[in-house]
Amino acid sequence: MNLKPIRSHDELSAALARIEELWGAPIDTPEGNELEILSLLVEKYEDEHFPIKPSNPVEAIKFRMEQQGLQPKDLEPFIGGSGRVSEVLSKKRRLTLPMIRKLNAGLNIPLESLVNAY
């Protein structure tokens, strides 16, 4: 096992190919340890070179609605009347701090997703 930081796309490709070969290796074996370390190296490289932008608050709300099978009327306890819900979902009105707190507490939407600019 000759491990080193991944610094190029070619090295990333080689690491991914090796991960595929090692996939399913038992934990606490030389192969399992190599798989775990390679996975961490790939994750670090991808985080640095392919960062994922923070989600848009409205998209986070819509995603949670889809996950839980919610309709816009189901957001009224968190956002306000149907008109206000419609304005928020169409990005005509920004979320207020009380809305953010209620959405976080009631629907478990991460605060980090709700406070991003959009």
TrEMBL record:
Highest rank taxon of the organism: Bacteria
GO molecular function, one term: core promoter sequence-specific DNA binding
InterPro entries reported for this sequence: Antitox_HigA
A GO BP entry: regulation of DNA-templated transcription
PANTHER family named in the record: ANTITOXIN HIGA (PTHR40455:SF1)
Protein's name according to its UniProt entry: Transcriptional regulator
